[in-house]
Structures are given as C-alpha cells and as structure tokens.
Amino acid sequence: MIHQQTLTQLASIPSPSSGTVSIGPIELNAYGIMIALGVIAGMWLLGRQLEESHLGTRDDASAIGVWGVVGGVIGARIYHVVTDWSRFSDDLGSIPKIWQGGLGIPGGLLVGIVVGAWQANRRGVRPAVALTFGVPAIALAQSIGRWGNWFNQEL
What we know:
The protein is mainly α. The protein contains seven helices and two strands. It has helices at residues 4-11, 30-52, 58-83, 85-88, 105-122, 127-145, 147-151; strands spanning 20-23, 26-29. Strand 1 and strand 2 (26-29) form a beta hairpin. It is globular, with a radius of gyration of 18 Å. The model has no long low-confidence stretch (mean pLDDT 90).
C-alpha cells in the first residue's frame, strides 16, 4: 500500500509552466494531445472488445468513435454555453469559438454517447453492445484526456 506521505508528494508535483509542445514552427497544446491520445486509446479498446466478441470490427469502432467525438464536442460546447449563458448572451458570435475554451464534459458525454449509439446501429452493431463495450473505452479515454488539465494548469 502506498504511504500517505508518498501520495502527498505526488499530488504536489506542479504543472509545467507551459502547456504547449513545440516541434519546429508548430506549437501543439498538450491538452489537445492528451485528449487525442485518450480518444485513440478508447477507440482501440472498443475495437478490441468488438473483435474479441465477434460482434463488430475495429472499423466499426473507428466509425463509432469518430462520430461520437464529433457529437461529443458539439454537446460539450452546447453544455458550456447553456451553463455560462451570461458570457455569450451579448456576443452570439463567440458561441462556436471552442479554441477560446469552454467545453463541458456532461454535455459531451450525453451527446457523444447518443451519436455513437446511433452510428453503431447504422453499422449493424447493436447499440446495447456498443454501449456496454463503450463504457470502459470512454473511461480509459477520460483517464488519459484528463491529464490535459494538469498540463493546462487546471488542477
């Protein structure tokens, strides 16, 4: 078992002073990198589970994941706009500007899961199967993606 002092020391590791990674002239946000790695890991797990159960393919998982992520980003932005309406009520043009921050996980999960289940059904994968296998895939994706908050100095 890990000693309490060790946990305290680990929890006190500060975030990096910069949340960006520079590769030549290209600057990438570490937050976005972690989200992308989470999505890739989640789609990999979903595909693995579908193929091992002979209920779908990795291609099915990729399609479900891509559609789910698109729906999730839209849902996350809608959730943020609705829950912080005073920030947008006088400037409706700023609603689609997700690069300026503001995504809400509850909305992302709700819309992303519904869209992913719809896409699963379109591909011949029963939505109940996609949801059953999708839960651990989403948890894996979230656990990796949340490290982006550490790089973003939001923890």
